[in-house]
Amino acid sequence: MSQATATQVAAFAAPEPKAPLERTTVPRRAVGPHDVLIDIKYAGICHSDIHQVRDGWREGIYPMVPGHEIAGVVTEVGADVTRFAVGDRVGVGCFVDSCRECEACLQGQEQHCLEATGTYNALDENGDPTYGGYSSHIVVDENYTVRIPDGLSLDVAAPLLCAGITLYSPLKHWQAGPGKKVAIVGLGGLGHMGVKIAAALGAEVTVLSQSLRKKDDGLALGATHYYATSDESTFTELAGRFDLVVSTVSAPLDLGAYLGLLKVGGTLVNVGAPEEPVSLNLFSVIGGNKTLAGSMIGGIAETQEMLDFCAEHGLGSEIELIGADQINEAYARVEASDVRYRFVIDASTI
Ligand code: NAP
Ligand code: ZN
After folding, report:
1. pLDDT digits over 107-137, tens only?
2. Which atom of ligand 1 is found nearest the CA of 296?
3. Domains of the chain, residue spans
4. Distance, CA 269 to ligand 2 centroid (Å)?
5. Confidence band of 1 (pLDDT split at 50, 70, 90)
6. Residue 59 has what pLDDT?
7. Do 7-161+318-349 and 164-294 agree at the fold level?
């Protein structure tokens, strides 16, 4: 496909809230001077896609083409593009533009720019809806595109664009490393990357999962300990154990119970984005001078740093590759916590 003008491309979309995804076409803008045209090879299925298709966060724009874990190959570059050439292996994550002038943008935290444009379920500067990675092609500004290092295959790299950076950023920020005890709550798409990255950073990693069903996997991914949160004795046995707990859980959680697992001065970082609020007895942070924090993906430079780190340490996602016709079935399995550990769509089937 070559693109002097806007064009229609193949995609999978939810026509309305909660509807199954179906095959369709959506417009992609003409390749502008700073844009690259990407032939999408793989798109990961993030639980955020499911929250949004279901309109669980109550801000959906339909028809919605989800997908913010995109890996592909550049097939055309705009006249002023300097960072990429045709044939480059690239990735696109959760946002495709930002104001480039505010404090967040200037600090490389474009994800927090108040004008950041989501890869999908957002409006671009012309007021047109953006469409995500469950699609054959996408046009993206080169400054919001990252390079996938040679050492990573595109299929296992795709999930790094959201799941990878969402765990890498807080693990670095809160200094997971040698001598630190880190717990990852929830062994799904985000959680399994958290285990791999925290272990590669040198931390001692514990998985806190609902059951012991995935224990062998968790230990193989790099964890040293694995506990079931359905067993109440876990919370007494591990009380005061961790420097850092990262929750990736997609449903409302009793955060107070997890704060109880922190050492004095420890931090619980919540990255899960449940659809309903949670309540918290504030004595859980007062006692022990604890911190409850949040973290959202990462900036462009940090995303590139994460990809380079993952390539250097041989960390791809554990994936189940599916055809586009299996997307709805995959959604149901993710919602049932039945994913090992990321569904990735082969975009050639779209
Ligand atoms: P996922 O693959 O479904 O993993 C979530 C895991 O949470 C499940 O595998 C399960 O792990 C655990 N879990 C699910 N329901 C639970 C419940 N009721 N109680 C306790 N544990 C439960 O989802 P994901 O793609 O990793 O995304 C996780 C969450 O992070 C979603 O809410 C997503 O929207 C959000 N997210 C946030 C960011 C960010 O920037 N902050 C970025 C991406 C995604 P076990 O089976 O091991 O218990
Ligand atoms: Zn995501």
Report:
1. 999 999 999 999 999 999 999 999 999 999 9
2. 40
3. 7-161+318-349, 164-294
4. 17
5. low
6. 85
7. no
Ligand 1 pocket, Cβ-based, cut-off 6 angstroms: 46-48, 51, 162, 166, 186-191, 209-210, 248-251, 271-274, 295-297, 334, 337, 339
Write the CA distances from 56 to 83, 257, 275, 314, integer angstroms.
37, 25, 5, 35
Is it true that domain 164-294 has CATH number 3.30.2350.10? no
Residue-wise burial string across 292-306, b where 16 or more C-beta atoms lie within 10 A, e elsewhere: beebebbbbebbbbb
Mutate to test the pocket of ligand 1, among 53, 337, 342 (most ligand atoms within 8 A of CB): 337
Give the residues across from 61 on adjacent strands. Answer: none
- Which candidate, 175, 222, 178, 171, places its Cα nearest to that of 196? 222
CATH 3.40.50.300, domain 7-161+318-349, yes or no: no
Position in ligand 1 atom list of the atom nearest CA 207: 47
Query: pLDDT tens, 15-67?
Result: 999 999 999 999 999 999 999 999 999 999 999 999 999 999 998 999 999 99
Q: Record the tokens describing residue 186, joined without a space.
A: 């929830």
Q: For residues 270 and 281, what is the distance between their CA atoms, to the nearest angstrom?
A: 16
Instruction: For 300-333, write each residue's pLDDT tens digit.
Output: 999 999 999 999 999 999 999 999 999 999 999 9
pTM, 2 dp = 0.98
